[in-house]
Design brief:
Blueprint lengths: L2 H8 L26 E11 L9 E12 L6 E12 L13 E21 L2 E16 L3 E12 L14 E5 L14 E13 L5
Antiparallel strand pairs: 1-2, 1-8, 2-3, 3-4, 4-5, 5-6, 5-8, 6-7
Length: 204
Amino acid sequence: MKRRRFLRHLGLGSFGAAAPPVFANTLAVPAWGDAHRNFHLLAISAAGPEGGPAAPQHQLLMSGDGTFNPAGPEAIGGGFYVHFLFSGRAPFPGELALPVIASGTWRPKRVLSYRETVTWGLEAAGSLEMAVDLFQQIPSKTVISGTRLEILSNPPFAGLQIHDRRIGYTLSMGPDFSKGGRVGPFAPLDPPVGIAAFSVAPLP
């Protein structure tokens, strides 16, 4: 998806000229030697069919940054999430905001697997699967465990032939985000909305 369309989907059109945000550049790098990798994420995934005004789609905006040991299980970092109902477009100024189902923060518990296919500069392509905890703040405070997060990164400039792997993330939950029934898993949109990447150098 083009960057301008992605930012408009997020309601961040005024930031169109800005560089992708880095959320954890102050993380202390553990003593893992040269083996560590970093994850960077700002993307939207969805559960269920494409939504409309009569039947909005469950979508999840998720951000995060962190450092992990590719051999596992160590990982640090985290970010925030907003689970909302998407009725087909972002609201215009003055319209009601899209309904929020749940929102909070998250952090990794451990690395489950990491597969790296190629590097391009300091960026790496591959997939990272982690067990994570969600710390819901809205509508009520609760900790949601038993959650798996898979981050998918395929740099579009590295000449990769990708047919069945998209950019973004998949979030598979054990417990519900909120009362009223299980939703998920959340999977990348097609075309993808967001940024997901791995880097191979220590964060400054």
